[in-house]
């Protein structure tokens, strides 16, 4: 079978992978910021809960988390979920997992900010919100960009884990094709897809990092 | 009326009494220098005055408005948040290490607070910022980032940033001690040029000749107390042994 034909057959899977990737980033980046606030909260209860959440997300396999999100509603609450829930379960699982990782990245960035920046802002009369969004956050973004890049590249490869809950993303499709045609070519194509995807991501992140280089 | 009044201020860090019964006041337009050995509590005094640090005991007034006073249990109580925000508008602080915002251009460092805190029009803020930069000798640096400037230029931007909010009193915490000696002069010159703006200034400094030239009044602090206070002539010709010992170290400059 021609390589291009395989690619067409894989296209649907690619689109699902890209969807998981985009949805995860769009939601987990802001959610992670919120989680990092909880992690740094002065309220001990909130801090403890968020700390526990982060440790579970980081301390257990994403594959397992996806299964909990997908099968949980039925086994825990007896709610029957339709087939359409698969992709949603993948979205939810990825978002809450990545939010935890991003939260820790935000936290390290925020805590690395020198106290002098807060003090200068306070003396100039900035409110807490203004201080964060005008002074602190823009600098944090620059500081954490390399760690975020690492995480985003991992995410590209992680999207393949959605196959554990039978989401027909790229990897699942390739696997099915490979066994029906007893050929390794679908896997080669899949590998190529992840590689090119990551190449594009890396180039994009490099571009953003360059854009941030207007100051030291 | 006094722009700043501090009465019987006490502050300790882990059992160490850093400020012990400090009282001082600053009149409108007055220039006060604070000198003293390292660790005597000068920075802590400025940090208490600017409310970056909370006092343990004592009173703090700006233009007669109560920012802090002693409560029933004898420890300091601060005014409500909104009140403090009002009071805070009266003063600015120039830090030893500038604390400019590195992600903003020089111009934005200066106009950001006027626009977003004071809600002034951008046009107005830019116009004033350009005038200030002119005054600081930095007219051509408006679009530069702080990392592209020398320490002395950074400090002048920091001064412009503080002035842009039109404070009644400006505090300086060793504005030149992070600078190479050859850059010290340009910053001191700029501070001197502010004297005719009629803004009160409290300057913590190790530049004795500068303190003597510019000040209306000098305070000599040691170990958390004000040892001596007076006109530059009085303090620099003091018979007090501690003052003499301290100033002796700067003997050849004076
Ligand atoms: N946040 C803090 N926590 C604990 N101790 C502190 C703190 N800030 C200051 N101190 C201590 O208080 C004392 C006075 O410090 P301060 O910085 O006010 O002195 P200074 O007169 O400004 O000295 P220098 O001329 O070196 O700047 C020092 O012994 C210092 O170690
Ligand atoms: Mg100091």
From TrEMBL, chain A:
Belongs to the binding-protein-dependent transport system permease family. One of its GO terms (molecular function) is transmembrane transporter activity. The chain crosses the membrane at residues 12-37, 49-73, 85-103, 184-205. It is found in: Cell membrane. SUPFAM superfamilies: MetI-like (SSF161098). InterPro entries: AA_ABC_transptr_permease_3TM (IPR010065), ArtM/GltK/GlnP/TcyL/YhdX-like (IPR043429), MetI-like (IPR000515), MetI-like_sf (IPR035906). It comes from Lacrimispora xylanisolvens. It comes from the Bacteria. It is a multi-pass membrane protein. This is Amino acid ABC transporter membrane protein (PAAT family). GO terms for cellular component: ATP-binding cassette (ABC) transporter complex. Gene3D superfamilies: MetI-like. Its main location: membrane. One of its GO terms (biological process) is amino acid transport. PANTHER family: L-CYSTINE TRANSPORT SYSTEM PERMEASE PROTEIN TCYL, MEMBRANE COMPONENT OF AMINO ACID ABC TRANSPORTER. Keywords: Amino-acid transport, Cell membrane, Membrane, Transmembrane, Transmembrane helix, Transport.
């Amino acid at each position: 079978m021609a390589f291009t034909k395989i690619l067409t057959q894989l296209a649907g899977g690619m689109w699902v992978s890209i969807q998981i990737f985009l949805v995860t980033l769009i939601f987990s980046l802001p959610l992670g910021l919120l989680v990092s606030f909880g992690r740094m909260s002065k309220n001990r209860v909130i801090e403890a809960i968020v700390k526990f959440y982060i440790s579970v997300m980081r301390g257990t396999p994403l594959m397992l988390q996806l299964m909990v999100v997908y099968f949980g509603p039925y086994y825990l609450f007896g709610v029957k979920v339709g087939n359409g829930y698969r992709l949603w379960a993948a979205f939810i699982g990825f978002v809450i997992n990545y939010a935890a990782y991003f939260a820790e990245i935000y936290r390290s960035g925020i805590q690395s900010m020198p106290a002098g920046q807060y003090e200068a802002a306070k003396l100039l009369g900035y409110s807490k919100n203004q201080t964060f969004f005008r002074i602190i956050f823009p600098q944090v973004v620059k500081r954490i960009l390399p760690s975020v890049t690492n995480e985003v590249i991992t995410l590209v490869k992680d999207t393949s884990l959605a196959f554990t809950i039978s989401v027909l993303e790229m990897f699942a499709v390739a696997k099915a094709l490979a066994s029906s045609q007893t050929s390794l070519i679908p896997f080669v194509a899949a590998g190529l897809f992840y590689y090119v995807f990551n190449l594009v991501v890396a180039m994009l992140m490099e571009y953003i990092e360059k854009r941030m280089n207007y100051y030291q | 009326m006094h722009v700043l009044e501090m009465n019987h201020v006490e502050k300790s860090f882990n059992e160490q009494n850093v400020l012990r019964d400090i009282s001082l006041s600053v009149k409108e337009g007055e220039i006060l220098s604070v000198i003293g050995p390292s660790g005597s509590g000068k920075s802590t005094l400025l940090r208490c005055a600017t409310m970056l640090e909370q006092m343990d005991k004592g009173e703090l007034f700006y233009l007669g408005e109560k920012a802090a006073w002693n409560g029933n249990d004898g420890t300091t109580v601060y005014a409500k948040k909104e009140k403090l925000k009002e009071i805070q508008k009266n003063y600015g602080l120039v830090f030893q290490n500038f604390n400019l915002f590195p992600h903003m251009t020089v111009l934005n460092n200066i106009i950001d607070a006027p626009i977003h805190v004071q809600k002034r029009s951008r046009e107005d803020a830019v116009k004033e910022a350009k005038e200030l930069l002119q005054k600081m000798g930095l007219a051509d640096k408006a679009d530069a980032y702080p990392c592209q400037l020398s320490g002395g230029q950074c400090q002048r931007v920091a001064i412009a940033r503080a002035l842009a909010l039109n404070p009644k009193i400006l505090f300086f915490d060793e504005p030149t001690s992070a600078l190479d000696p050859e850059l010290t002069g340009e910053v001191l010159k700029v501070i001197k040029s502010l004297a005719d703006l009629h803004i009160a200034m409290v300057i913590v400094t190790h530049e004795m000749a500068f303190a003597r030239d510019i000040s209306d009044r000098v305070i000599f602090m040691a170990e958390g107390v004000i040892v001596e206070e007076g006109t530059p002539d009085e303090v620099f010709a003091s018979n007090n042994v501690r003052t003499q010992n301290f100033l002796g170290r700067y003997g050849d400059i004076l």
